[in-house]
Amino acid sequence: MEKLPNEILLCLFENYTRAYDLFDCYCNLNTRINDLIKHARLQIDLSISSTSIHEINLLISTISHSPEQLHSLQLSDRYFYSQTTIFFKAIDLENCLNIRTLILLKPKLTSLLDKILLKLENLPHLETFSIDISNRYNAFPFIQTLFNIVLNKLFLKKCRLIFGHLSSSILFTNYRCQTLEYLSISLYSLYDLTQLVYQIPNIKYLDVKLTVVETAGILWNNNDSSLSSFAGTIPNLTSFKLFMICVPFNEVERLLINHQNLKRLSFTSYVCMNNECMSGNKWHEIVSTLPKLQSFQLDIQREKADLDYVRTVQLPSFSTNFWIDRNVYVSYYYIRVSEVVCFHTLPYFNKKLHLSLNDFDFGSTMQSAKPIETYESVNHLQLTAIPHPNAHRLILPDSFPAYVYKNLNSVTFCLQAQITCTQPLLDYIKNVFDSSRSSITCVALCQKYHGYLIDPNWLITILNCGTHINTLRMQFFELNTIINQLSHNNDLRLKLNKMIRHLNLNATYLPTNSICLEQFCSIFSNLRSLVNIRVRTIADCLVILQTVITEMTQLKHFKIQLDSESVTFDHLDPEPEIKTFTQIDIKETLEKTLQDTNRQFSAIFTANFLYINLCMIH
């Protein structure tokens, strides 16, 4: 490594090494490495759930001595309580003169955050700013201040402003932000959107979510000319993503037409007011005015829609050569409980596909070969069974279409009804695995219908057909019940032991009974990772740790979720931090368990999670 030139080492430190690892592993190796570290542009991301208090303290201590090295900072209060407050109490943002990117996720709305906003205009190189306070309500004064600073006083290129709720319209000014090219934002109404675009004339990517339910004549004046001139106000727009609720389609049409440089359009609308929103002819008129459009996506939900009209009129309206030439295909699914039709484009440019097993409504796609037979770009398939609310059992069709999924790597079976594996269904599952050319490595099996158990044939069929499966996601209770029901089936246990290397228990409890726990460990003795286990007490955690690590000699990754009663805070402290009351016991258990073995561990503690990495000593 030391033979590499300084330029390559610096590139590795800045772009391929976490800031914490840089200081923890490389600092003080020698004078040359130390000099390079002092000149590295630091990219710090503390938003991931595994961030520990030790990591935060080390980075704060380091940055406080050289704040000019900080080029990118991402903080989150989602996993670590008051992370934003802790960081900025120790470090003055005004001293971070070279920072280019600042991202704040779910920050606490405190007076300190107000001061941070005011300091943003003193950062001459800031290009990207993002803040997500979608979990905060009654924050309108803060949001108004945020808009004024971001759009009037900063010279950003990229900006993301996400709010969960807006109580009224934002007051916009006449100032124009000429530098902004990328904006993702939550707004109150359609009127706010038309006012906003006058401030961002050079925008190229626009992602907008309107948070109010629009109704004709209340929040919008149909005679207003700003909708007609909308496209001309932002002539450089190449990507437009729009989410709204209950907006009349004629206003949507005026908003979307005549964008001469638009290449990607995504439109999502819930509680649509009329049939035009799902008409291929109407969308034909809009798309015809977008000469450079390459990608078009729809996701529309409509209550109490006429299913026969959807099948016989609206779906065929998308089956013309105009749409086929553009690789646009549509389908729908029907949610019986809420009587909602979900009308959407098929995911030829997406990676996930959700299909329904009951009534096979998704089989009503337009009758051309390509969308029915082949899903080439999909790598994750979710098959869901949703019964009618008055039905106790799910009625399956006599046959299933033989769709082809060439590049699947994961499948989820989400059973929201009691469902028995009939022969047609077994054949369909077999076809899913066969058509994927043995590329499926991950399977999830979820039962969400209380009072009934999963048919054991599901798991048997999946393991028999999916010869390359190595990852299984399933609740412990369901998995253990199937194993016990088929206690005479040694072939099932052998397959689980031989095939499964990664097991996700979906946040369910492992038993602490020694017999049950040892039986579980013997069946999955070759696991490499065991994640999303819940424990009720620290005592349970220690028992599980000792047994699992002893019996599963190949285990490398282990993740445990501690119930809230297992984690205590000092409630008298206005800014509570993670305590280390569990760490000593857990580390002592790990050291004792691994004593006289050729394995060692590293452990990361967060508010509710414990991450353990195990490795061999060479």
Please tally the helical runs, counting DSSP H or I stretches of 4 or more residues. 21
Ends apart, CA distance between termini: 21 Å
The count of β-strands is 22
Largest sheet: 12 strands, mixed
What is the structural class? alpha/beta
* Strand residue percentage: 15-25%
The radius of gyration over CA amounts to 28 Å
* Residue runs with pLDDT of under 50 for 5 or more positions: 215-223, 360-372, 565-581
Could you report the average pLDDT, rounded to the nearest whole number? 80
Description:
The chain is an alpha/beta fold. Helices cover 31% and strands 23% of the residues. It has 21 helices and 22 strands. Strands 1-2-3-4-5-6-7-8-9-10-12-11 form a twelve-stranded mixed β-sheet. A ten-stranded mixed β-sheet has the order 13-14-15-16-17-18-19-20-22-21. Helix 14 links the parallel strand 13 and strand 14 (380-385). Mean pLDDT is 80; it is low at 215-223, 360-372 and 565-581.
Summarize the structure.
This protein is of the alpha/beta class and 618 residues long.
Secondary structure elements and their pairing?
Blueprint: H1 6-15, H2 19-26, H3 31-39, E1 42-45, H4 53-65, E2 70-76, H5 83-90, E3 101-105, H6 111-119, E4 128-133, H7 140-152, E5 158-163, E6 182-187, H8 190-196, E7 205-213, H9 230-233, E8 239-245, H10 249-256, E9 264-270, H11 280-287, E10 295-303, H12 307-314, H13 321-324, E11 330-335, E12 340-345, E13 352-356, H14 369-373, E14 380-385, E15 410-415, H15 423-435, E16 442-447, H16 456-465, E17 471-473, H17 476-485, H18 490-499, E18 502-509, H19 514-523, E19 529-535, H20 538-551, E20 557-562, H21 583-593, E21 599-605, E22 609-616
Parallel strand pairs: 1-2, 2-3, 3-4, 4-5, 5-6, 6-7, 7-8, 8-9, 9-10, 13-14, 14-15, 15-16, 16-17, 17-18, 18-19, 19-20
Antiparallel strand pairs: 10-12, 11-12, 20-22, 21-22
Helix pairs in contact: 15-16, 19-20, 20-21
